Amino acid sequence: MNEIGGTARAGTEVERLVRLNVVALMWAFIIVGALFFLVPDGVVVFTNLVGSWLGEFSEAPQTGFRLWLSLATAYMVLVSVLAYLIQRDLHGNRPLLLVLAAGKAASSLTCLLFYLFSLDAFGYLLNFLVDGSIVLNCLVLYRVLDPRRRTRARASGLPRGLERGGRGRAILDAVLATVLADDDRVDGGRAVPSPALDEELLEYLRGLGPSGPRALLPALLAIEYGTPFWFGTLRPFTRLGPAERAQYLRGFETSRFYLRERVLFPIRFLATTLFYARPEAEAAIGYERPRIDRARVGIY
Predict the structure, then answer these.
(1) Which residues lie below 8 Å from residue 1, measured CB to CB, with a gap of 6+?
(2) Radius of gyration of the chain (CA)
(3) Any idea where the domains of the chain sit in the sequence?
(4) What would the pLDDT profile of 206-220 be if each residue is shown by its tens digit?
(5) Which residues pair with 121 in a beta bridge?
(6) Residues 69 and 36: beta-carbon distance below 8 Å
């Protein structure tokens, strides 16, 4: 019950931050749209001034023709209304985040094209960067509000990626299979079957608190995508062959770089501790009876 309650409180906190984010966007759209409408030439002059402080940019020309201003004002009204509707019902209006992202992507990319092929004015570059960041923000919020993500988090108590079928779980399974198969004390170098060892390891980390599984995922990603730096290949760890995986992980254990060595050490320590505490594993390495009384003290 405490875990469920904690997950619910975390979900509420995330939704509060998402709502604040969207409300801030709404007010930014309203203020900028008002400036466009009330002082369009002043906005142009200001962006030219800022550009002159930051580098050598061409000056954007002022124009008295207001048709484009009318269309820009309508666009700013539209995105402000979209943000207002999204913050009123985050989950019900979640698809509107994609509509908002599409509009901002069009604004950002056209400004980039104008900057590259028309006039290198600072205003074009600024709008490309600002609206591009809004696009990324909207996509992140869309992913955060995914109802399937919230359901999986409630069910497993694990961060996204470590649920069964997730990317992190696949990396963990590959690491566990490699570190156990690399141990010549077990069945001539072949690991004794270890059903649900990943579940045991994750259950132990859950018992340490929410930070336990969260700390595991970055370590697994470092192992998966560190191959270009530490193994000289573009293939991630899970795409390597068994011999290559073993050689790659041995590099972690023998590394003189402390942080790299620490990435694998806690995973291997927990995996071997959990694995060799099993009666079948103890028997495979010559211990016919458990060396400790699990009924009284467990293995921890």
Answers:
(1) none
(2) 27
(3) 2-150, 158-297
(4) 777 667 777 788 888
(5) 58
(6) yes
Q: How far is CA 272 from CA 130, 191, 213, 267, in A?
A: 49, 11, 18, 9
Three-state DSSP at 58 gives: strand
Q: What are phi and psi of 58, to 5 degrees?
A: -70, 150
Number of Cβ atoms within 10 Å of the Cβ of 80 = 20
Residue with tokens 């205003």: 123
Kindly report, residue by residue over 125-135, the tens digit of the pLDDT: 999 999 999 99
Give the Å distances, CA to CA, from 112 to 43, 94, 143: 19, 28, 26
3-state secondary structure of 64: coil
Q: What pTM, to 2 d.p., does this model score?
A: 0.52
Alpha-helical segments (H) within the chain:
2-38, 40-54, 67-88, 96-117, 122-144, 147-156, 167-181, 197-208, 211-225, 227-230, 242-253, 258-276, 279-284, 294-297
| Reduced 3-state DSSP string for 140-153 | HHHHHCCHHHHHHH
